[in-house]
Inverse folding.
């Protein structure tokens, strides 16, 4: 069966009064929302019937095999809803619970920026790129050295993300070693909030960290309701496997559902070890886990926003036992499944298995990002990752930004109108004239993509500038940004409020949260 | 003598076929082949072959795992006869293995366990989320040679240090060697906490375990 073309965009028309000149000069952060329709149709690797088969497989797994839930509240919710529980925590879900959840979970999630302006609409064919979180190593753009990251590296990563036009959201990028290890998540989020206005995907160790993160975000937004109405961050929750739902994952999911805040619920199934080595079996198993998350979130609070994975079906490399980040095999499958559900998705692109910023890194990042954009991935994370997620590089991130701009221009909708066809001009100029001096040319020439890193100069022009490679130029761009770019600051009162939350976590011996001391995560 | 038989035994390991390996082991005894000869001339060459293939990137991990399973099946079929004759197959060493308290990451540790077993170590896998003291208790009970501690989080890495200290307190070191592993673990960290060995992946764990015991 061949691939089918599936048109899913609902919102790719630009406003009637849209001024293209604006695009070239615009503050892209602000303009992004109007330019959200990066691609206007989606390539579906799976046919609709194949998606239905995968969905049915998920239902069968949940009814026949069941999943273990390591959280009492989640067990109580599913028991009350009619699921069968055996062996303490092994839950078999009737299909109707899943179908019910799918009917109430929102089909679209909008993430706002720090100032409450809409920044990303996760739906249809809209694609946005961002970095990953918590790399254990940094490949320093200044020296090329691979070393342990410190908090200042997180600060720099976020400032670079804030400056790069085609990086639309941020994640922590690095796991700093120079702060208290059980509360690194608080330090990371504090510096993220200070250094960007872009939407945030955050990760925490325990539920207490998640509670603190939400408290910090509420302080920035100016209240609980403001944050719920205009969320500018979402929590990335990793789940042990499709059928093992760890206590922390469920606690965080229930806490966020209670608040009505978006969660990314991502079970991890590794083909050949924690799941079948075949892509269909592996994806069916992780999808069963996704459906568990949907059911529990909707039982807790109908209509709570959930972002599902648009990656999965990967396997360990059976020769090295490394978990590869850009194998080609399952690409497009989970994205097609998420579009089948018409749900917002979190996907993976811009990462490389290479150990340094080299040809492999550039090729893998570009292939991955393009395929993901064409398949309609929404929130594409891990730009700038090297070494299969163990290292991160800001130079690589800058290269990903360049690729993202290229992709945006290669995929965005095309305007065919009197103005763009320019038939009158063609007639006026006739066969013997030229277009160089026409106002029409100057009016539209900046609509095309121009590189900030890729080299198009003549040979002597390139030599005169530096004669440097892409990796070297990318490192220079990062240094340039760090020397000149500054994010608009938080108000002193907000800065103080979020710092108090960090200090409170510091004061607790176990790194417990401010909020948990007054009622617990689900209070 | 028995060349054909040895070849079939070798092949059953390469094919990763426990049932076949077990049958061939029993048949070898019927043919009057001594148990150690069956192991050393028949089955071990198969294991060595698949190990080499793995190092060249030709065999995949599951090939290696199943070769190990076939080897175990062959040896257990020969076990009663070996006991009768009062001989033992040499074990390279006893290893107690686990993922430290607070950490539920399993795969890396299980790979190490599988490869150590396939290489001739006797492994006692304590599983995941293992309390600190449990490592020392089990090591003492089994008179283990090596304790392996896995940690996949920067927070639970501290537990590796606690296990080293616990083994010290129980007076088990330096006789019992400690090896550590996991994504955030580095050679520097291993040295800092006084561990005896560190490996970046499961294959290097086998090499380190061998060298620590001079095998």
């Amino acid at each position: 069966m061949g691939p089918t073309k599936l048109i899913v965009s609902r919102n790719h028309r630009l406003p009637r009064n849209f001024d293209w000149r604006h695009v070239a000069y615009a503050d892209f952060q602000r303009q992004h929302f109007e330019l959200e329709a990066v691609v206007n149709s989606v390539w579906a690797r799976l046919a609709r019937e194949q998606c239905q088969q995968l969905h049915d497989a998920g239902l069968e797994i949940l009814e026949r095999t069941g999943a273990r839930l390591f959280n009492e509240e989640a067990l109580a919710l599913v028991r009350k809803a009619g699921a069968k529980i055996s062996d303490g925590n092994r839950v078999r879900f009737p299909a109707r619970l899943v179908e019910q959840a799918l009917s109430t979970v929102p089909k679209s999630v909008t993430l706002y920026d720090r100032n409450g302006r809409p920044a990303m609409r996760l739906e249809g064919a809209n694609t946005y790129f961002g970095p990953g979180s918590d790399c254990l190593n940094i490949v320093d753009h200044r020296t090329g050295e691979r070393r342990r990251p410190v908090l200042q590296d997180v600060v720099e990563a976020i400032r670079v993300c804030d400056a790069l036009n085609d990086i639309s959201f941020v994640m922590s990028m690095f796991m700093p070693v120079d702060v208290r290890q059980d509360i690194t998540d608080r330090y990371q989020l504090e510096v993220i909030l200070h250094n960007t206005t872009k939407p945030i995907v955050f990760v925490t160790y325990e539920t207490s960290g998640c509670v603190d993160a939400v408290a910090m975000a509420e302080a920035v937004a100016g209240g609980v309701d403001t944050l719920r109405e205009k969320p500018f961050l979402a929590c990335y929750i990793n789940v042990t496997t499709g059928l093992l739902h760890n206590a922390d994952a469920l606690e965080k999911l229930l806490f966020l559902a209670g608040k009505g805040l978006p969660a990314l619920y991502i079970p991890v199934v590794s083909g050949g070890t924690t799941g079948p080595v075949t892509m269909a079996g592996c994806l069916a198993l992780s999808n069963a886990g996704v459906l568990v998350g949907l059911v529990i979130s909707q039982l807790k609070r109908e209509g709570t926003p959930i972002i599902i994975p648009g990656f999965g079906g990967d396997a360990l490399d059976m020769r090295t036992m490394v978990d590869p980040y850009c194998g080609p095999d399952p690409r497009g499958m989970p994205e097609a499944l998420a579009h089948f559900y018409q749900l917002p998705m979190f996907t993976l692109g811009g990462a490389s298995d290479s150990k340094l910023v080299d040809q492999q890194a550039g090729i893998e990042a570009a292939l991955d990002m393009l395929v993901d954009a064409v398949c309609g991935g929404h929130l594409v994370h891990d730009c700038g990752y090297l070494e299969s997620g163990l290292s991160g590089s800001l130079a690589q991130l800058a290269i990903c930004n360049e690729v993202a701009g290229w992709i945006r221009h290669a995929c965005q909708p095309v305007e065919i109108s009197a103005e763009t066809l320019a038939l009158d001009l063609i007639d006026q100029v006739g066969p013997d004239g030229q277009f160089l001096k026409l106002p029409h040319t100057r009016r539209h020439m900046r609509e095309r993509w121009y590189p900030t890193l890729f080299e198009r100069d003549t040979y002597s022009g390139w030599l005169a500038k530096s004669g440097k490679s892409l990796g070297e130029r990318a490192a220079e761009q990062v240094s340039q940004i760090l020397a000149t770019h500054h994010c608009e600051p938080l108000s002193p009162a907000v800065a103080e409020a979020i710092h108090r939350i960090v200090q409170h976590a510091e004061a607790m011996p176990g790194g417990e949260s401010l909020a948990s001391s007054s009622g617990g995560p689900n209070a | 003598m028995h060349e054909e038989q040895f070849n079939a035994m070798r092949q059953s390991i390469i094919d990763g076929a426990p049932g076949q390996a077990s049958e061939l082991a029993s048949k070898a005894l019927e043919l009057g082949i001594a148990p150690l000869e069956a192991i050393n001339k028949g089955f071990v060459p198969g294991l060595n072959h698949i190990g080499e293939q793995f190092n060249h990137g030709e065999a995949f991990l599951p090939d290696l795992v199943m070769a190990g399973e076939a080897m175990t099946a062959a040896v257990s079929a020969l076990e009663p006869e070996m006991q009768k004759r009062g001989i033992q197959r040499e074990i390279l060493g006893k290893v107690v293995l686990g993922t430290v308290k607070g950490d539920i990451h399993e795969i890396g540790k299980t790979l190490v366990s599988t490869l150590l077993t396939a290489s001739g170590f006797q492994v006692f896998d304590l599983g995941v989320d293992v309390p600190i003291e449990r490592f020392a208790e089990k090591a003492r009970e089994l008179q283990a040679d090596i304790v392996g501690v896995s940690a996949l989080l920067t927070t639970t890495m501290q537990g590796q240090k606690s296990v080293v200290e616990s083994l010290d307190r129980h007076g088990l070191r330096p006789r019992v060697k400690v090896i550590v592993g996991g994504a955030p673990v580095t050679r520097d960290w291993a040295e800092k906490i006084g561990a005896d060995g560190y490996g970046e992946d499961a294959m290097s764990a086998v090499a380190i375990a061998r060298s620590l015991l001079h095998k």
In short: The interface with chain B takes residues 136, 175, 177, 181-182, 184, 205, 240, 246, 270, 272-274, 316, 318-322, 390 of chain A (CB under 8 Å). Chain A is about 45% helix and 15% strand. Confidence is low (pLDDT under 50) at residues 1-39, 511-523 of chain A. The longest helix of chain A spans residues 279-300.
